[in-house]
């Protein structure tokens, strides 16, 4: 499958415990409930959604960005409940060869291997289906959990961007990357 073919219809991905799928309007309350927790957004660089109506318009922006081949936002849902407990995003594509990866997870599901399982499915999709050469992540130096996750996924630390724009903040930012040849 090529980069362009991957955007014909939303690419749902199934793992052992999870379904990574397109966010639907019914998911707005679940998303709002976990994403409005300051601990979840502390390293995100953006404000939490103000209300469920704001979330619904965010989902429309996600859908439109997918149609424009700008990003793929997977809702992470438990197979048991189908409830949205987090998201993973591949976006900021550069000529179909490079992308940024971002993720967030409900605090109730931290330290259960959920994000490792999610990235373990999305990273291969990026390299194999989208044909990416490089996937990169930007993380605040004090976000130890995210750094540990990236290192478990074999991302390499490349350096520190001083007072980089991270959402609405200017903060030091570490950049990590994984190349297709390192993944294979």
Automatic annotation (TrEMBL):
Protein name: GNAT family protein
Organism: Paenibacillus dokdonensis
Domain of life: Bacteria
A Pfam family: Acetyltransf_3
InterPro entries: Acyl_CoA_acyltransferase (IPR016181), GNAT_dom (IPR000182), N-acetyltransferase (IPR051531)
Organismal lineage: Bacteria, Bacillati, Bacillota, Bacilli, Bacillales
Gene3D superfamilies cross-referenced by the UniProt entry: 3.40.630.30
Domain N-acetyltransferase, residue spans: 18-181
